[in-house]
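Hi P.,

Sorry for the delay on this. The queue was packed all week, but I finally got your sequence through. Input first:
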Amino acid sequence: MRTRNLIITSWFGAPTVEHLPHLSRASQGIPPHMTVNLIVSGVPLFSEEVRRGLRKIAAENPNRLGLAQVVKIRGFAGATVRAFFSTLMTKEDVRVFGSEEEAVPWITERLATSAEAWTSAQVMASLRRASAHPSE
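Then the structure:
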């Protein structure tokens, strides 16, 4: 899901090398924006090539207002993914969250600095829509 200043990517499995060019293109050439990765389900297996690619994409985006990693996976697998993103993404404009509810205040605050502010309710509704599995 992409709007003028909010990009939401929903993951129902671990990213592969084939996903990286699409992720990179999604945020190029657009005005200041917020990026949200919703990790909804899947096995937290990231190849070293994917790790390098994600680091590069995160570092080369000058128009990003922030990057929220929302890890909805529960239990040990979720803790593993949150720990991975916490060590991978160390910039101040990056945060890792365990739920949409935790992420919304920070996302809304970051979007308030852009030309198009969002309310918390608008952000939450967008995240909920993006969390629904495509087959639902």
